[in-house]
Each structure stands twice: as structure tokens, then as C-alpha cells.
Amino acid sequence: MKVLILGSKGQLGRCLSDQFGTTNYEFMCTSREEIDITDFEDVKEKITDINPNVIINASAYTAVDKAEGDEHAANLINHLAVANIADTCNELGCWLIHVSTDYVFDGTANSPYRETDITNPQGVYGISKLSGEYAIQSSGCKYLILRTSWVFSEYGNNFMKTMLRLGTEQDEVSIVGDQVGCPTYAQDIAKAIVFILDYLADETIVGVYHFSGGEQCSWFHFGREIFEKAGKVGFLVPNNLQSISAREYSTAAKRPGYSVLDTHKALKVFGLLPSDWKAGISNVLRKLQMKS
């Protein structure tokens, strides 16, 4: 099986490279410099030349606030480019595994979102990601759409690394306490994708799946867990943490108040257990210490 990974320089792309490196799969990781997904003709030509059995799209426009003022770029990368990739997959008869987001929901629920629940994105980022999902579903290609949430890792920019940076700069850190979701360790997403490959002989698995952390929390509680673990292994941490409301922390894009994903379908079909994000925090801290 030949696997092509798009978006190799992002945090998920780098985790996918880590995980595939321990397997016997023939895989190729490409960055935007090697395959620019916004150059539609070039993408079709290069993918056709590679002729993979599976494409994993880990590339995305993820700057949620910036997207509010840059709708064209968000739509180009998260929707139109994805539509082009899906069409190419359909022409080649290869699978597309695409990573999506909890932002396709409006965050007004009071129980975990299932794959069949009504979507209602509240900002440009969520709208563009949902449009990408629709494009995949209408392309005719064999696909798996994996929605996830609150992704963090030892790579790139993410909430955990922001917290660790703030811990070295500030004695008091304020974190939003009234938005609830499930943190997800990107290495666990990558492991889940590798695991799923064994199931691709069965085309009845085509569809949307949720994969995220197994324990919900607020951003405040996520941050507190990060600092508690970080302090124990020698990282600088603030002396005071303050829980604030989303209203007190103004952002350009509206965040879902509740974005917990129901992961039972992925468990039932693939036997995938949710991400253990607390163990993920410990793994990130260990890897960051090894680099320092």
C-alpha cells in the first residue's frame, strides 16, 4: 500500500511521519513547497504521477481568528483545494482520509455531538471546513472524514505550547473556563489513522467519524493539568491561574461553548479508543525536555 501525506510540516503531518516511520507502509510526506494544494492542475499531475492507494490530507488553514478577515484563503485551502484532491482521488480510485474539526458544530448542545447531528458552523473557519466535507462527500471518492478537536502536540503552535510559553513569561495566567471540549493528542490521531488503514479493503466503512480525547474539560482545566504536570518535571509555571469567561477573552472568531465529540462510532467500527490527553501532556513534556 502506497500512502501520500499532504501537509507534512504541520503538527499532525509531523506526527504522521513519526508514526508511519515505525511501520512497513510505503509512504511519502510532502510539504506545501513540494505539493501546493492550491495549485489545482499541479496537484492533479503530481498525485497522478505518484499514484497512491491512500491520500491523507493533513493540510489545512487553521488560523481560526485570522480566517475571519481572510475568507478567500480559508475557503481556498479548506474547501476548493480539498474538492480538487477528492476529485483526483475519485479519478484514481484511491482512498482519501481527511481531517476535519469540531467547529462544524455551533457549540449549543448539552451532550456529545454525534456524526449524524446537525452541523451549524459559526465562523469562516468552520464554514470552510464543512464545505470541504461536503465536497468530499459529493466527489464520489472513497473517503474517511475524521473530525477531531483541541489538537496539541510537541510540534507547531497549539494551546499547550502557548501555556508553557506563558508560564515562563507571566506569574498569573487567565484561561477561559466556560468553553468545554476534549483535548486530543496529535500523535494519537496519527496512530488512529495508521490503524484504520487495515480496514480500507471494506468500502462500507466510507463516512464521517469522530476521534478526540476521552475526557471532557474546559480550557481552564486543560491548562491547569498542563501546569501541574509541567511543574513536577521542572518547567517554569505561573503561581496563579484564573478562570475567566469567554466574554472576558475577546477573539475575532466565535468559539463553540460546547464541542465534545461522541467517539462511539470509531470505537464500534475500528475499535479505536479515545485519545488519552493527560498521557499526551506527559509525552509532550518529555519530548520537549529531550530537545532542550
Question: Overview of this structure, please?
Answer:
The protein is an alpha/beta fold and 292 residues long. It has a domain at 2-157 and 184-213 and 260-276: 3-Layer(aba) Sandwich (Rossmann fold). It is 41% helix and 17% strand. It contains 10 helices and 12 strands. The protein has helices at residues 11-20, 40-50, 64-67, 71-92, 124-139, 159-169, 186-196, 219-232, 264-270, 277-291, and strands spanning 2-6, 26-30, 54-57, 95-101, 142-148, 151-152, 172-176, 180-181, 184-185, 207-210, 217-218, 240-244. The strands form 4 sheets. It has a 6-stranded parallel sheet, sandwiched between helices. The chain has a two-stranded parallel ribbon with strand order 6-9. A two-stranded parallel sheet has the order 7-12. Helix 1 (11-20) packs across helix 7 (186-196), helix 6 (159-169) crosses helix 8 (219-232) and helix 8 (219-232) packs across helix 10 (277-291). The radius of gyration is 19 Å and the shape is globular. The protein starts with a strand and ends with a helix. The model has no long low-confidence stretch (mean pLDDT 97).
CATH superfamily of the domain at 2-157 and 184-213 and 260-276: NAD(P)-binding Rossmann-like Domain
Query: From the helix content, strand content and strand pairing, which structural class follows?
Result: alpha/beta
> What are the secondary-structure elements, in order, as H or E?
EHEHEHHEHEEHEEEHEEHEHH
Q: Tell me, what's the shape?
A: globular
CATH architecture of the domain at 2-157 and 184-213 and 260-276: 3-Layer(aba) Sandwich
Q: Compute the average pLDDT.
A: 97
- CA radius of gyration is 19 Å
Number of strands: 12
- Name of the CATH class of the domain at 2-157 and 184-213 and 260-276: Alpha Beta
Tally the helices. Answer: 10
Q: Spatial order of the strands in the main sheet?
A: 2-1-3-4-5-10
What is the name of the CATH topology of the domain at 2-157 and 184-213 and 260-276? Rossmann fold
**Straight-line distance between termini:** 37 Å
Helix content: 40-55%
The biggest beta sheet, please? 6 strands, parallel
Outline the low-pLDDT stretches: none
Percentage of β-strand residues: 15-25%
